[in-house]
Amino acid sequence: MAAALLGGMRQPAAAEAYQSRLLYELCALLLTILRSPPEDGAGARPRALLPRQVTPAGVASMLLGASMALMLCGSVIFMLGFFLMPWVLGFGCVFLFVGFVTNLSGIGRAIFLWPAASSPKEVSPSLMKSAL
Fold first, then answer.
1. DSSP assignment letter at 42
2. Is the pLDDT of residue 53 over 80?
3. Which of 17, 57, 81, 124 is the most buried (most CB within 10 A)?
4. Which ranges of 1-122 would DSSP assign to H, the alpha helix?
5. Which pLDDT does position 118 carry in this prediction?
6. Buried/exposed code over 39-72 (b: 16+ C-beta within 10 A; e: otherwise)
7. Mind listing the pLDDT tens digit for each residue in 61-119?
8. How many CB atoms lie within 10 A of CB 30?
9. Which residues contact residue 23 at a Cβ distance below 8 angstroms, ignoring those fewer than 6 apart?
10. Strand runs (DSSP E) across the chain, as ranges?
């Protein structure tokens, strides 16, 4: 399958062995990092954990994998945002138009009935007594 994808050319055995060794070191590094501390049980005696040797190639492989994962996720998020931005702008324009139409009557009342709206209302004395 991989040979068909590469155009019929097969990688040399040394290159495959090198990639396998890098993958093994990467897995060993991740397991070393993610390994949980031993639990202290009543019947179990504590055992000493042997530190594993982490090579610089393993660290480089881990960082390369993390950067590739971040680039892939960033590209997917960018494409989602790129496709959804017209919808966000469209909904913003619709809400702006609805807000303008909703306030149109208040704006018209303020412009055309300005002297009547600014004059104080006369309150009858009977309403003043009932409010107290």
1. S
2. no
3. 57
4. 2-5, 13-34, 56-112, 114-118
5. 52
6. eeeeeeeeeeeeeeeeeeebeebbeeeeeeeeee
7. 888 988 999 898 999 999 999 999 999 999 999 999 999 888 888 887 777 776 654 55
8. 14
9. 61
10. none
Contacts of residue 55, defined as CB under 8 A and 6 or more positions apart, other chains included, come to: 25
Query: Is residue 48 very low, low, confident or very high in pLDDT (cuts 50, 70, 90)?
Result: low
Question: Which is more confident, 36 or 67?
Answer: 67
DSSP H/E element including 36? none
Q: Is 106 helix (H, G, I), strand (E, B) or coil?
A: helix
Beta strands in 52-130 (DSSP E): none
User: Which amino acid, 33?
Assistant: I
